[in-house]
C-alpha cells in the first residue's frame, strides 16, 4: 500500500532513476508506481514515484523520515527540486466563489463522496448567495465582500490570508470567483491557487460571453483550469476540455453546457493536484495522469 509520493524535477542527465530507486531501496521501500518525463525543450527531467515500506508493519511516519534522509543527498547531487508527500493526507482546500454554484457543488459532493482526496475547511465568497449550499455540506461559509470603497479589496485579501493561515490551507480554488486577486496575493501562494474559466478567452471577454459566442455561431465550447499568477488568466494550464454545440442551441443552452464542462475540468485539476500529479515546468505543467 502506497504511503508516500515523491515528486522531483532537475536537469536531465544519466543515472537519475537509478539513484532515486537506490535511495528508496536503501530506506527500506518498495516502488508501487513510477512515471517520468524528460522535456526536450528545457532538458529538464520530471518524476513521480509512489512508494511503500517493503516490510509489513513498518511505521509509515518513520518510513517517511528514512526516505527523506536517503533522498536528500541524491537531490543535492542532481540539483533536484523535490517534495515527499504523505499519501494519506488530504489536501486542505479552500474554495472561493461568487454567484455560480456549479463548480462549488461538484467539488463539495466529490469531497464528501471520497472521489477527491481533499478536505474543504471553508468556503469564501463575496456574496451571500451560496451560504446555504456550503452549510448543506457542513462547511463553514465566510462572507468577505469586495466593494468599490477605497481599501475594500485590500481588506478582503487580508481577511483571506488570515483564513488561509487559520485553516492551514494547502490549496485555494477559484470556483467561479469573479474577482481579480492582487499580484501580492498571487505571489504569496505560487502554485497553490487554481482558477477555472470558460475557454472563449480572449475572443469573448467581458460580460455575457455565451451570448457573444451564440452570435458568432461557435461550434465548440470548453473550459480551462490553470494556476493563478500575476498575469491574468495566463498561468500554467493544468487541464482543458471542450464539447460540441450547434446552431439549435440558445445562449442559455450554451451556458448550461459550459457549466457542465467547467465542473468536470476543475474537478480533474483539483484531483491531480491533490494526488501530487502536477509539476510546474516554467510557464507550463507536466501532469502525470
Q: How many independent structural domains?
A: 2
What is the top-level CATH class of the largest domain? Alpha Beta
Termini gap: 19 Å
The helix content is 25-40%
Residue windows where pLDDT falls under 50 for at least 5 positions: none
Number of helices: 8
Annotate the secondary structure layout.
Layout: E1 4-11, H1 16-26, E2 29-39, E3 44-53, H2 60-78, E4 81-86, E5 91-97, H3 102-113, E6 118-119, E7 123-125, H4 131-136, E8 141-143, H5 152-166, E9 171-174, H6 183-188, E10 193-198, H7 209-215, E11 220-227, E12 237-244, H8 251-274, E13 278-281, E14 284-287
Parallel strand pairs: 5-6, 5-7, 5-9, 7-8, 9-10
Antiparallel strand pairs: 1-3, 1-4, 2-3, 10-11, 11-12, 13-14
Q: Could you write a compact summary of the structure shown?
A:
By secondary structure, this protein is of the alpha/beta class. The chain has 8 helices and 14 strands.
Amino acid at each position: 500500500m502506497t504511503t508516500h509520493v515523491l515528486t522531483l524535477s532537475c536537469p536531465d542527465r544519466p543515472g537519475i532513476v537509478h539513484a532515486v530507486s537506490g535511495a528508496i531501496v536503501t530506506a527500506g521501500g518498495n516502488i508501487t508506481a513510477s512515471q517520468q518525463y524528460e522535456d526536450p525543450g528545457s532538458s529538464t527531467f520530471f518524476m513521480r514515484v509512489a512508494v511503500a515500506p517493503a516490510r509489513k508493519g513498518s511505521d509509515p511516519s518513520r518510513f517517511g523520515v528514512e526516505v527523506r534522509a536517503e533522498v536528500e543527498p541524491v537531490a543535492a547531487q542532481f540539483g533536484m527540486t523535490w517534495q515527499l508527500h504523505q499519501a494519506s493526507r488530504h489536501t486542505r482546500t479552500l474554495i472561493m466563489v461568487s454567484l455560480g454554484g456549479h463548480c462549488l457543488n461538484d467539488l463539495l459532493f466529490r469531497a464528501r463522496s471520497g472521489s477527491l482526496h481533499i478536505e474543504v475547511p471553508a468556503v469564501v465568497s463575496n456574496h451571500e448567495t451560496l451560504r446555504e449550499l456550503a452549510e448543506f455540506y457542513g462547511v463553514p461559509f465566510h462572507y468577505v465582500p469586495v466593494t468599490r470603497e477605497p481599501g475594500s479589496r485590500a481588506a478582503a485579501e487580508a481577511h483571506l490570508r488570515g483564513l488561509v493561515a487559520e485553516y492551514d490551507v494547502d490549496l485555494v480554488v477559484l470556483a467561479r470567483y469573479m474577482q481579480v486577486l492582487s499580484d501580492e496575493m498571487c505571489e504569496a501562494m505560487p502554485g497553490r491557487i487554481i482558477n477555472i474559466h470558460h475557454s472563449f478567452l480572449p475572443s469573448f471577454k467581458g460580460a455575457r460571453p455565451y451570448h457573444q459566442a451564440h452570435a458568432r455561431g461557435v461550434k465548440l465550447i470548453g473550459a480551462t483550469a490553470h494556476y493563478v499568477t500575476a498575469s491574468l488568466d495566463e498561468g500554467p494550464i493544468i487541464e482543458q476540455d471542450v464539447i460540441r454545440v450547434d446552431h439549435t442551441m440558445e445562449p442559455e443552452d450554451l451556458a448550461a453546457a459550459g457549466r457542465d464542462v467547467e465542473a468536470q475540468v476543475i474537478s480533474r485539476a483539483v484531483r491531480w493536484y491533490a494526488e501530487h500529479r502536477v509539476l510546474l515546468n516554467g510557464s507550463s505543467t507536466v501532469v502525470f495522469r
